[in-house]
Write a structure and sequence with these properties.
The protein is of the alpha+beta class and about 350 residues long. The protein contains six helices and 17 strands. The chain has a four-stranded parallel beta sheet with strand order 3-4-5-6, sandwiched between helices. α3 links the parallel β3 and β4. The longest helix has 21 residues. The protein starts with 7 loop residues before the first helix and ends with a strand. The relative contact order is 0.11.
Length: about 350
């Protein structure tokens, strides 16, 4: 067996899958995907140093034992802090892992330089940079064109050895946010029958799709270099579920509205080349209140009535609208009768 003396791995694990836990009467932070199964693999020594061959053996162990996701909160660096030459053995092992159906995530590096550390820089690995609480680049985070996505990495509270919590900084803390999001996405897609039950059946196309769900739905973050955005788990999950998330939300006006004197207008975003086909309105407890089909155009009017054409009670109502292109749009409207 082994122990995490330094605490780095325990902190990373907590960001991915920490469950609600109380220490000295204080509730600790909860991880991104708190029902995930964690496979700790120690490849660095108690001082956080190690050899590339140990990292390769660690990846091999994870793959042979069925890991869906391999989070690598580490990076190769020269003793003087400079970028080392390409390590073909590590690169090849990551490509083998990727081809085996594993989703690989790694820290971009903490040198504050315009280059991405290995293994994050490899095409088979998602490279994660770090942001601060002001939603700008953490001073230490590496950046550049080969960065895939950005996540929080400053003063991140998570688990530490000895039933403790504490803050740490680093792209090592940012990477597990992305790994946790990937775990959530795989879990959801598997529940929907839209992801292979066995990792052995996962294709590189599946992994590219998973990466796209994360990177395509990230918030714009131009300060990190071309191609990178800030992780937005809500948008990623919404996209996996067929929703457009905040980027594609419909506009509702007036809201609140009084159905005795006006309609609620549900409108697609300006410039949309799509059109509505169906609307379903639900009460707060999930009951279907109204369904309209065979619609057309970019605006739907809801008059505040139910299927019996009676005015609904005041309150909050949720709706789901489907478009001709099969996109699902959701939103809410408040009925207010004065």
């Amino acid at each position: 067996g082994w122990n995490d003396v330094q605490g780095h791995g325990t902190h990373v694990a907590g960001i991915i899958g920490g469950e609600e836990y109380t220490v000295s009467g204080v509730k600790g932070p909860v991880g991104i995907s708190w029902h995930v199964k964690l496979m700790p693999v120690k490849v660095l020594d108690d001082d956080g140093n190690g050899k590339t061959t140990d990292i390769i053996e660690g990846i091999k162990y994870a793959i042979e034992n069925g890991a869906d996701i391999v989070n690598m909160s580490l990076g190769l660096i020269e003793p003087d802090g400079s970028q080392p030459p390409l390590d073909n053995m590590l690169k090849d092992k990551c490509e083998v892992a990727f081809s085996s159906g594993a989703f690989l995530v790694a820290a971009a590096g903490n040198e504050g330089k315009n280059w991405i550390a290995q293994p994050a820089v490899y095409d088979s690995v998602v490279a994660v940079g770090a942001s601060n609480k002001n939603n700008s680049k953490a001073s230490f985070s590496n950046y550049g064109n080969q960065l895939d996505v950005v996540a929080p990495g400053v003063d991140i509270m998570s688990t530490l050895p000895g039933d403790e919590y504490g803050p740490l900084d680093g792209t090592s803390m940012a990477a597990p946010f992305v790994s946790g999001a990937a775990a959530l996405l795989i879990s959801y897609l598997r529940e929907q029958g839209d992801w292979p039950a066995s990792r052995d059946d996962v294709t590189t196309q599946d992994l590219e799709r998973l990466k796209s769900l994360i990177t395509d739905n990230a918030d714009d973050y131009s300060s990190f270099g071309t191609g990178s955005g800030s992780l937005n788990v809500y948008r990623s999950l919404s996209a996996a579920a067929g929703f457009d998330g905040e980027r594609g939300e419909v506009i509702v006006y007036p809201n609140p509205f009084n159905p005795l004197v006006e309609y609620a207008n549900i409108r697609l975003p300006s410039g949309s080349e799509d059109s509505f086909s169906e609307l379903r309105v639900f009460s707060l407890d999930g009951r279907l209140v109204k369904k309209r089909e065979n619609l057309a155009g970019t605006v739907i009017e809801w008059d505040g009535t139910n299927e019996n054409n009676s005015t609904v009670a005041p309150g909050l109502y949720f709706f789901m609208a489907e478009t001709e292109k099969g996109r699902k749009k959701r939103g809410k409207a408040t009925v207010l009768i004065r």
